[in-house]
Amino acid sequence: MRMERAVVVYTTFPGLVEAERVGKALVERRLAACANILPGMVSHYRWEGKVERSQESLLIVKTRADLLARVAKRVQELHSYAVPEIIALPILQGDQVYLQWLNEQLQKTEP
Question: What is the domain count for the chain?
Answer without folding.
Answer: 1
